[in-house]
Amino acid sequence: MGYQLRVERDSPLAYAELAEPAVTEAGFAVRGSQDGVEIVARHADGEHLVASWRQEAGSGSVTGEPVSDWQVAQLVRLSEALGGRLVGEDGEFYRLRDGVVEQVSGSHVYEFGKIEEILAAGPAQWSE
Hints:
By secondary structure, the chain is α+β, with helices and mostly antiparallel strands. Helix content is 20%, strand content 45%. It has one domain. Helix 2 (69-81) packs across helix 3 (115-121).
């Protein structure tokens, strides 16, 4: 299992909210049932996994394990569409500010780059 990012919100996330217009209009598709869902986004001619939603005690949580800047950018977009914030295992958070995807950890800010450029580049995996 890789490094996990999760969408945090003030209110629990119900299954029905995954199909709301804010999510689908942002370009995400939902595959699955009330037991578990995959959230995908299209690039070129294919769909690519962005996150998963799992049922937990009446509500669910959205998590993703990005392997590319494209997936991080998509997770930031998804968290905004769901009215939440994207948080990492170490407490850092990810945001979109002035068209730039950023990771914020304490007083340090790391810029991934312009969202349009990241999304256009596609889901190419990070090299090790």
